[in-house]
Every structure is written in C-alpha cells, then in structure tokens.
Amino acid sequence: MTVGNARYAAVAAITSYKPIEKPLDFSETPSQELFGQNVFHDAVMRARLPKPIYKAVQRTIKSGAVLDAQAADAVATAMKDWAIEKGATHYAHVFYPLTGATAQKHDSFLSPDGNGGAIAEFSGNQLIQGEPDASSFPSGGLRTTFEARGYTAWDVTSPAYILENPNGTTLCIPTAYCSWTGEALDKKTPLLRSMQVLNVQAKRILKLFGNDSPGRVIPTAGAEQEYFLIDRNFFYSRPDLVVTGRTLFGAPMPKGQEQEANYFGVIPERVLAFMLEAERELYKLGVPVKTRHNEVAPSQFELAPVFENANVATDHQHLVMITLQRVANKYGMACLMHEKPFAGVNGSGKHLNWSLGTDSANLLEPGETPHENAQFLVFCTAVIRAVHKYSDLLRASIAHAGNDHRLGANEAPPAILSIFLGEQLTDVYEQLEKGPARKSKKPGTLTIGVDTLPDLPRHAGDRNRTSPFAFTGNKFEFRAVGSSQSIAGPLVILNTIVAESLDYMATELEKATKGNPKNFNAAVQKLIQKIIKEHKAIIFNGDNYADAWHAEAEKRGLPNLRNTAEVMAAVGKKEHADVLSKYGVLSKREFESRNEIYTEKYVAEITTEALCALEITKTMFLPAAYRYQDLLASTAVSLEALGKKADIRSLDKVTRLISELEDRIDVLEQAVTAEVKGGVVKHALHCRNKVFPALLAARESSDALEAIVADDLWPLPTYLEMLFIK
Ligand code: ADP
Ligand code: MG
User: Fold this and answer.
1) How far does residue 266's CA lie from ligand 1's centre (Å)?
2) Ligand 1 centre from 514 Cα, in Å?
C-alpha cells in the first residue's frame, strides 16, 4: 500500500527552490536613502505643512497639547497628498487589541462626488478618529456586544507610514483603541499613560538634584527579536504548526544543537537574502534595525534594532514581527514567532532593553562623577525596589501559554524574577548598606554621602546570560519576554512600578530636605540604605538555572510562578490593582478585564492545542501505526506460512505503543471536554494540571511510535527535516 507522503513532496519542492527573479540591488538605492522613505516623519511634515500647523503638531508631540480641528484637517490633507503620490489608495487605523496582534481597518480615500464620479478625500476627523466594528475583539466584559462601538484615536507621537503591497499601498496611522465609554481596549493606551506618569515622577527626582528643566523624561526600549525560519512546504504539512504555532509532536533528532555550531555561524544564503529584504522593508518604514545573526538553535535567528522612545519602539516592534513573517513567505519560508516551536531545542525570546532618558542624558548611565553617581543610584535603586515589590505583577506581564515553555521549564530564563547587577555595582550597594564607606578614595570631592564610591562600571564586566533582568551597562535587559509578545505589556508594568518607586523616593527626599537643602546628601544616603536593606533579596548574580537558586529564592520569599495558570491565580491582588489605578494607567475595571481576557486566552490556547493533538493522533499517527502493524503482522504470517520462525519484537512494541496511545488519547479527550465549574481561573488551572500533562503523555507515545514506524509511512515532517533542510 502506498501513502501519498506530504513529507517527500515537501523535500522535493525544497530541492527545486529557485531564488526570487529580480534580486535587490542596494547600489541602485543605498540604504541611507531608503531609510524612512515611507514615513510621514518630521522632515516631511516640515516641508509639507504650513509653518503654524507644523508648530502646532510639534507642540502636540512634545507636550501633549490638543491639536485643533483646523490643524488636523491641514495635516490630513498633507498626509493624503503625500500618500497618494506614493501610490496609496486606502488609509488604515492601526491598533493593538488585547489579542496581542496588530489590527488594521482599511478605508478607501474615494468618495462619490454626486455627479457619477469620485474624489479622493481625507478629513481631519477621519485622521483623528475611526470607528472599527469592534464586537469581535476581546473586551473582558467592558463592552457588551450590542454596544459594539470601539474608537481608534490618532497617536500623534508615533509617525504615520505607508505599507507596500505589489498591487498598491496603504497609509497606516498608529492609533489608540478604546470603548465608547473611554476604557482602554488596547495595549497602546496604557503604554502612553504609563509614560506620562513616569515623566512626572522622574522629573521630581531630577528637580531634587537641581535640574529644574530637563525636558520630557521618556522610557527608551530596544527589543531583540528571536525567531525560527523553516521551509514553507514543511510548515504547511504540519497541522500543529499551522494551528498552534508550535510542533505538538516530534521525536528528538539524532543531531541536535548540542554541537553549538550555529551561534554566530555563517548565515545560509537563502536566509540572508530574506534578511536583506526584510531589513530593507523595515528601513523604508524607519525602523532602525541594526544587527542580525544566527542563534544557538538550528534555523534560529535574531534581529535587533537601535533603541527608541518606548511608544515608537513598540509600534516598530509590531512592524518587525509582521514584516519578518510577510517577507519570509516571499522566500518560501515560514517565520515562527512561537516561544517554543520545537521541544528539546532552544526557545525564542525577546530581550527588552529598557532605560530612562531625557533629550540629553540616559538616566541609567552610571557616569564617572560622584554627583552623577548619586543621581544614577537613585534611579537604579528605584528599579530594584519596583522589581522586588511588584515582582509578580511584572511576571504576569510576560505570562502566556507560549512563554510557559521557556519560563519555568529547565531553560533560560527562569520564572523567578531576580536582578543581575554585576560585581561592581553589587559591591557599591553592599558598601552603601553598611553605612559610611570604608575608605575615602577622593577626599575633598562633593559629598553626596557616596563620594567614596569607586567609579561605576560603564559596562558591567561580565554578562550573566541566565538572569531574567540584568543591568547591562546603561540599561536593564528584561529577558523573560516571549518572542511572540507585544512589548507594550511589560513596558506598561515596568514604567508604572518604577514611577511608583520614584514617587516614593521623591516624597521621602522632599520631606527630608524640607527647609534645609543641606540635608539632601545625607537623606539620599539614608534612603538608599533603607531601600537596599528591604529589597536586596531581588539581587542575584549567580546561576539562575541552578536548583540551589530555586531553594534560595524560596527562602528569600521571591515568588516562583511557574506557569500562566498560576500567574493568573496570583495576579489581581489589591496592591496590583491599586498601583495601576493610583497613577491612572489602568482603572480597576480595565485591569480586571485584562486579567480575564488573558486567562481566557490561555484556556483557548491550551484547548486548541489539545483538540489539534487529538485530530493529528487519530487521523494521522494511529493510521500510520496501524499500517505498520499490519505490515509487520502480515510479514509474520507469511513467514510462518513458509515454515520460518518470525521475529515479532517490533510487532509487539508497536502493538504496545498503539494501545498506550489509544489510552492516552482517551484521557486527553476526557480532560479537554470536561466541564469545569467555578470560573475562568479554575478552568485555566484545569488546563494546566489536567489537559497539558495529558497532551504530553500522548506525545510521549506518539514520539516513540515515530521512532520505529517505517519512515515512508510517517505522515509529518520530522524535526531533522524541518530544522536542517533549507
Ligand atoms: P549589548 O551589547 O549589551 O547587547 P547593545 O548596545 O548592542 O547592547 O544593545 C542591545 C539592545 O539594547 C539594542 O536593541 C539597543 O538598541 C538597546 N539599547 C541600548 N541602549 C539602550 C537604552 N538606553 N535604552 C533602551 N535600549 C537600549
Ligand atoms: Mg540580549
């Protein structure tokens, strides 16, 4: 019996792959000319807008002043003309609903002119506000379906841009998305709110250090994106990849990443061609992509941009994900953003580099003078306090089904949040904690209570790759973010909790120095000392993978929330809701609705995986196994008929594995169809504790079958094929 084997067809298609017809030529248009070509950026506005309008827009961008209707009309007209010159037929409000995806609603510029013709129109109103029919986006009870109105509102601080398609282009306008009652239904709105709060609190600290007009303080972000690339023929012959984004099955490869030959290795030609085009597209969109390399796992790669204002960086990060996926297609590949597409192979993360800066200074730059050191230490201490105090809230911001395969599994980084400071900075804090410094290195310098500290490290000497939250020279690197996630969520929490710490510190310092500024130095010293005593438990410079650390972390009282279900059961405490509502980042209702949406999403994802696994095992694996069993049984019968003794060891093994798989499928089916009462968090826990293990058990049996069933009968591409044939 022959089986139409999709695998062999896929391999055949790959060997006859042809590169795209007309290669790109960067000497025709150098990348510096391409950069920002499709962005309605500052220089374009300056050239195209009347001066007073341009100034009004700048005021809105810099200080948040409201843009009046007349100015908006003028901007809209200029934007439309510019876009039409670039081939645009439509405009789209782009927003980030709580699904974590990017959403766009396209509208044509054309309107009937009443005389049988049409004119291209785009008004200030259409620019500023949109109304997508929003009933199918999650709202967590904030909006009942009959009140389906959701509004998108232009975010003036993130530039509009043009997305190209071979058949035309679209003007894209970054927007915030909220319900008709003004409640946030997206990821951008709270991000903008959190940035505003951080600005206010950071400025109070700067003022105490004598800086009355620092300009706006903004959080900066740079996200390193890891991803896998596999041939599209393999992708489409794996229903699990298509439906869930990861392989639910697959026997381990004879050749793995243990040889570690990939990291920074030569990039395969087809992949490099893809990267060159993806980067070119991103340049046009003004996304400052900078570095690329092979990652540790086979077929895994990374791309990193230069950091930007956190809001723009977030919009750009969404564009990076969309662009990688779109361009990969063109090169006959699928770009996998899932955190763990292949079990037993390194997962993918998104290192979120984060700092705070003014136009002229990075506030997390240690600097070389004692005075700046003290200011740096205040900001750094605020981060330490925030991450310790709200560790579980920060953990929640990166929790979802995909990321569970990294965090809390035996791989980097762990689910326990801790901060790596590096030896030198840790030593500084140890000195500070003990009080007056031991020796005076620079007698006579300005006393800030810390004048005897050693110069702070510009680059933390070593890098601790196991740390989930590491100080890396002049920024913190949050490494526990998942590769598929929007960086908006973790940024919102980080900004807010650091703002709360800065608020606390500014209040304490203002109290202490009231009436007598001479007390400032001593007050700073005393406050840092107090905070470090209370919060040093979060600092850990050792190996985060070690079992010893898990035991130690427990002693220190650090939460270890191993998976999304546990996180969702723990998050939503009063202090979580309070810190978000106190600063107007998320109201209690908005926060609760989000937790509900994320928990429902978790349930949906695990359920989908289970249903997909059931279908694959029943309709693909078992038939293959039964065919092979039949082959072995017939062979045995034939041999016996010839009077020969048949060896039935393989037959026994297959028979045993088949019934084991049948049993485990039953268990999985029962678990996933069970009715769970008591709310969505209960359901999430059921998914984690019953469905997920049942899925793993079924996988174990089918992977064992994959290892012995005849290769030409096995229906799905293997790990080796997917990861090594390109
Ligand atoms: P490293 O050598 O530590 O990996 P890089 O300087 O190459 O650091 O930066 C890694 C990422 O960190 C890049 O995306 C970069 O833009 C970002 N980054 C650098 N400085 C900052 C900053 N001040 N704020 C936010 N991100 C930053
Ligand atoms: Mg990194």
Assistant:
1) 23
2) 38
The pTM (predicted TM-score) of the whole model is 0.94
CA proximity to 203, closest of 191, 190, 213: 213
Using a 10 angstrom Cβ sphere, with 0-12 exposed, 13-18 middle and 19 or more buried, the burial of residue 648 is middle
State the closest ligand 1 atom to the C-alpha of 221, by its place in the atom list counted from 1. 25
Q: Which residues surround ligand 2, an ion (CB under 5 A)?
A: 224, 351
Q: How much distance in Å is there from the Cα of 224 to the middle of ligand 2? A: 6
pLDDT band at 673 (very low <50, low <70, confident <90, very high): very high
Q: Which helix (H) or strand (E) holds 175?
A: strand 168-179
In 3D space, the residue among 274, 271, 415, 259 whose CA is nearest the CA of residue 346 turns out to be 259
188-232 per-position pLDDT tens digit = 999 999 999 999 999 999 999 999 988 899 999 999 999 999 999
Question: Do residues 308 and 220 touch, judged by C-beta distance below 8 A?
Answer: yes
* Per-residue pLDDT at 459: 56
Specify the ligand 1 atom closest to the Cα of 291: 7
DSSP E strands, 358-496 = 419-420, 469-471, 476-478
Q: Is 621 in the pocket of ligand 1 (CB under 6 A)?
A: no
The answer to whether the CB of 544 falls within 8 A of the CB of 468 is yes
Res 2: pLDDT: 45
In the reported structure, the alpha carbon of residue 584 is separated from the centroid of ligand 2 by a whole-number distance in angstroms of: 31
Does residue 446 carry a pLDDT above 50?
A: no
Please give the distance, rounded to the nearest whole angstrom, from the Cα atom of residue 190 to the centre of ligand 1: 24
CA neighbours closer than 13 Å in the CB half-sphere of residue 79: 34
> Which ligand sits closest to the CA of 288?
1
What per-residue confidence (pLDDT) applies to 62? Answer: 82
8 A C-beta contact, residue 538 and residue 387: yes
CB environment 497-530: b (16+ within 10 A), e (fewer) = bbbbbbbbbbebbeebbeeeeeebbebbbbbbbe
Q: What is the pLDDT of residues 570-626, one digit of tens each?
A: 987 889 999 999 999 999 999 999 999 999 999 999 999 999 999 999 999 999 999
Whether the CB of 474 sits within 6 Å of ligand 1: yes
354 lines ligand 1 (CB under 6 A): yes
**Contact status, residue 286 vs residue 163, Cβ threshold 8 Å:** no
Tokens of 444: 């006579």
Hey, CA dihedral for 197, 203, 205, 207, is it positive or negative?
A: negative
CA distance 529 to 432: 6
| Pocket flag, ligand 1, residue 175 (CB < 6 Å) | no
Q: Does residue 472 have its Cβ closer than 6 Å to ligand 1?
A: yes
Residues 441, 331: Cα–Cα separation, whole Å: 60
Read out DSSP for 288-352? -EEEEEE-SSTTEEEEEEPPEEHHHHHHHHHHHHHHHHHHHHHTTEEEE--S-SSTTS---BEEE
Rounded alpha-carbon distances, angstroms, from residue 372 to 202, 212, 425 = 15, 16, 14
| Cα end-to-end span (Å), the chain | 30
Residues with Cβ within 8 Å of residue 212, at least 6 apart in sequence: none
Ligand 1: atom nearest CA of 223 is 14
Judged by its nearest atom, the ligand closest to the C-alpha of residue 475 is 1
CA dihedral 378, 382, 383, 388 (to 10 degrees): 140
Of the residues 226, 295, 353, which should be mutated to test ligand 1's pocket, given the most ligand atoms within 8 Å of the CB? 353
Other beta carbons within 10 angstroms of residue 674's beta carbon come to 11
